[in-house]
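It is worth pausing here to work through a concrete case rather than discussing structure prediction in the abstract. The textbook approach is simple: state the sequence, then state the predicted structure, then interpret. We follow exactly that order.
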Amino acid sequence: MRVFSPDIPSASDARASACPVCAERAEHFLSVDGGDYYRCAGCHARFLHPSQHLSQDDELAHYLHHENDPDDPGYRRFLSKLAEPLMARLAPGAAGFDYGCGPGPALAAMLREAGHDVALYDPYFAHDPAPLGGTYDFVTCTEVAEHFHRPAKEFDTLRRLVRPGGWLAVMTCFQTDDARFAAWHYRKDPTHVVFYRQETFRHLAAVWGWVCEVPVKDVVLMRRPLDAEST
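Step two, the predicted structure:
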């Protein structure tokens, strides 16, 4: 998938790092395959040290090998984990935004087929920044958040895009077991640099004053309150 903020800060201490999600101090817990991984006691995220992220060119080369066909029934079933619970909460004809749609925006196609309007943005494959200036009834971010180099900045953007009463829908494979982290297939993707737990999203929602639901594994729905002053 995609990385949205490819600037890579240098590390002054290879054994410590601030959490890129919540800025709390994180502790080193594992070195594997040449990478140093950290865990945050505040939001419970795990992440690769920022100095070890791939370059933007290397990431793009990796993404170009992905085959996400919008007409592939298997891929649509995969995305339905997020699409179905989200659509159950939307009013007819809602206005949405797919953040990180990739070269084959299958989720947007599914939502449009259900009668919703969906704008697209992707820094590599749909690089028109105009939709970033709007607000939406729902914003989707599927298999994207694990690629964020600067997740705090990206989540601030996502939060701003959601109208009062609207939904932010995120799908990413939850990290649950540190003992299996080294062998975890999700970690082995070189473009995956941040790994979230349910608690990570509940932490973000609590800080924002939003409601957080986990309707199925690996899917989070966060609702912005109707009262914009509370966010």
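Step three, interpretation. The first strand starts at residue 16 and ends at 18. The radius of gyration is 17 Å.
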